[in-house]
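Title: Comparing notes on inverse folding

I've been comparing how different people in this forum approach sequence design from structure. To keep things fair, I'm posting one structure and asking everyone to reply with a full sequence. Here's the target:
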């Protein structure tokens, strides 16, 4: 997922802040977001979770989730 996220971070730079957390080094943060498997991407807007992607996904899928979050969707789920 690193290449996908790096490309998207560059593309969405002015609209989205992306952070990577090492779950082994920061287990409390992982637990606070209920991360149980990796990779897990948690999409937050205004401090609230609006989406979650569990597992590797293609760039277009992740971009679609980000676009929906930016458009105002509140309950984005991945299949």
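Reply #1:
Here's my take.
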């Amino acid at each position: 997922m690193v290449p996908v996220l790096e490309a998207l971070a560059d593309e969405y730079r002015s609209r989205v802040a992306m952070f990577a957390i090492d779950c082994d080094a920061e287990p409390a943060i992982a637990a606070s977001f209920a991360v149980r498997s990796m990779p897990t991407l948690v999409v937050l807007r205004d401090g609230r979770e609006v989406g979650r992607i569990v597992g590797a996904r293609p760039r277009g899928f992740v971009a679609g989730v980000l676009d929906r979050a930016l458009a105002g969707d509140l309950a984005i789920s991945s299949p």
